[in-house]
Amino acid sequence: MGVLSNRGGIFLIDHKGEQHHSDLHEIEEKIRNHPEVENVLVVSVPNPSDDEVLIAWVIKTNSSNITSKDLRNYCINQKFTQDKIPKYFEFISEYPMTPSGKVQKLKLMEKAKSLINNKNN
């Protein structure tokens, strides 16, 4: 099932009730092409004032000094539309994983919601 956001994006709802923005994979692939990005996961968090907020969880390469501003500029230079540029780029050393080796996206969503709440207060 899918839900249309106010901005025209589509959220897909899986069998667990989790929302997945239809463009997240495309955004991740483009950001992952940056030479100082080892990996990236983008999550979309509902936010009353912005409809939805994209947050990129970035793992940098070992020698990287890249900043949020650098990545934002990279997205602009790569001709991302404004609605596909993450509002926040958060750098982490590793993703929370399940015992079977899968990324725990729900934990990233919880961290993202907490981040949004802290930034709005």
TrEMBL record:
Protein name in the entry: AMP-binding enzyme C-terminal domain-containing protein
Superkingdom as given in the UniProt entry: Bacteria
Keywords attached to this entry: Ligase
A Pfam family that the UniProt record links to this protein: AMP-binding_C
Domain AMP-binding enzyme C-terminal: 26-102
Organism per entry: Filobacillus milosensis
Family note: Belongs to the ATP-dependent AMP-binding enzyme family.
GO molecular function per UniProt: medium-chain fatty acid-CoA ligase activity
Keyword Phosphoprotein: no
GO biological process: one example: fatty acid metabolic process
